[in-house]
Amino acid sequence: MQRILVIDDDTDICLLLRRFLTKNNYEVAIAHDGNTGLVLLQEFRPDLVMTDFRLGDMDGGTILSKIKEKFPFIPVLIITGYSDIKIAVNVMKLGAYDYITKPLFPDEILLTIKKALESTESEQGSMQSSVAGKESSNDTKKKSSKAAKYIFGDGDESNYLLKQIKLVGPTNYSVLIYGESGSGKEAVAQEIHLHSKRASQPFIAMDCGAISRDLAGSELFGHEKGAFTGALTQKIGHFEMANGGTIFLDEVANLPYEVQVLLLRVVQERTMKRIGGTKEIPLDVRIVVASNEKLHEASKRGKFREDLFHRFNEFSIDVPPLRDRKADIMVFAKFFLDQTNAELGKNVKGFSADVIENFMTYAWYGNLREMRNVIKRATLLTDGEFIEAKTLPFEISNYSKLLFTDTVNVPNNQPIVNQIPEISVVSSPIIEVSTKKPSLKSAAVEAEYEMILKVLKDVNFNKSKAARLLNIDRKTLYNKMKMFEL
C-alpha cells in the first residue's frame, strides 16, 4: 500500500483527505505544521507528500526545499487557493510535481496523485543521475522538449512574436523578455533555444523570484561541500548545468544586488567559481532573462545594476498579454481543452456560446496560465459535450456584470475605477473627475491609493515586500497598481 503524508493546518481538510485517501487504498499520515511534517517524513517514509502552501510555521517554498534536501525523489503536491496560483507555479519550478487548488475535487486529487506516483517510478533513475552532476543536462533537455508544447496563435501579435523568435534564435545574443505573469515568457525562451544552434544542448530555467536571498548564489553557481552551514555535499549550480546550452532566468529583477555583482562577472568573463571553491570553470552559456517590470526603470531606482541590464539587453522581446490577443483567445482555449481531454480521458468537444462570450470579454489577468487552469477545472466538471458557463469561476462567468464605474474625487489626478472586493477590473479606463462632494466609497478608494503608494515608496517599489506589508498577494497588488496607474 502506497503512503501519503498530508501537511495542512486546517484540521477539517486533513480529516477529509485522510478518509478519502484511505478509502482509495492509500495509507495516510497527517501533520498540522511544517516541523511536525518533517519529523513524520523521516518516520513514515511516504511515497508522496501533499502540503498546503501557507502553513503557520513555514511557507511552501521552505518546506519543499527541506523535503527535497532529504528525499529528492518524493513527489510533492502543493495545495493552494485560487489566488495563489502564480506562487504555486513558482514553487513547482523549485521541484514540486504539481499543485491542486481549493476547493478540492476528488477526481482531480486522485488523477494528480496517480500521475505523480507513476511519473516518479518511471523517472527516478534519471533524477538520480541529475543530482550526481553533468548527466542532469540530458534530463533537462528531455524535459524541455516535452515542455515546449506551445502554440502561438494566428493573430498579428502572435505572428510578430514568432517572427522575432526566428530572427534572434540562431544568433548568440542575450535576450531580455518582458511580459506579464503567465503570458508565456518561459515558452518564448524555450522557442528561442529550439531555434538556436544549441537546441540539442540543455535548457535550464530558474525562477529568481521564488528563491530566497541566501540561496540565490548557490542555485546559480553551485557550492562546494562545507562552503557554509548546511552545505553537506557539493552542489552543481544552474549555470554549470546549462553549459553548452541556454539558461533562462525568470523574474531576474528579484535577484539580490550582491548576486547581481557575481552575475555580472560571469556574464563578462564567461567563467565562474562555485561558492566556497577556487577553481575557475569556463562557461559557454546563452543567457535569456525575463521580467514583468522594465529593468531600465528598476536600474534608475537602484534596484538593478545598469551595467548588467545593458549586458542582457542585446535583444528584447515584449510578450503581449492574452487580453490584447483577442484573435488567439479561442485558439489557446481549444489547445488547452485538447490537452485536458487527453489527460482526463474525456471527449469534451468545445465551448458553449456563453462561455465563448465570457472568454472574449474577460481580461485574463493571469494570462495563459490562468486560462489553462480554468479550462482544466471546467473540463473536469463537464459531463456533456460542451463546457457551460456554470463550470467557470464566478469572476469569469459574471465579469461583464461586475464591471462598473463611478465618478470620484481622484487623488493626484490619477484615474480610479471602483472595484468589487476580490474582483479585478480593466485597467486605465477613461473616467470623468467628479466635482461632487466626496462619498464614503471615494474616500475609501483615495485612502487605499495613498496607502499603496506610501508602502511602495517605503520599500523602494519592491512588490514582494509591499504585498507582504499590505497583507495581500502579489497578483492583487499588480492589479491595484494597474488600476491606480502606479
Explain how this protein is built:
By secondary structure, the protein is α/β, with parallel strands linked by helices. It contains 21 helices and 14 strands. The chain has a five-stranded parallel β-sheet with strand order 2-1-3-4-5, with helices on both faces. Helix 3 (60-70) links the parallel strand 3 (48-52) and strand 4 (76-80). Helix 5 (106-132) packs antiparallel against helix 6, helix 14 packs across helix 16 (367-381) and helix 19 (440-458) crosses helix 20. The protein starts with a strand and ends with a helix.
Largest sheet report: 5 strands, parallel
What is the tally of beta strands? 14
On the 0 to 100 scale, the average pLDDT is 79
Structural class: alpha/beta
Tertiary shape: globular
Give the N-terminus to C-terminus distance in angstroms.
Answer: 54 Å
* Strand composition percent: 5-15%
**Poorly predicted parts:** 123-149, 404-439
The radius of gyration is 23 Å
- What is the overall number of helices? 21
What is the helical fraction, as a range of percent? Answer: 40-55%
Going across the biggest sheet, name each strand in turn: 2-1-3-4-5
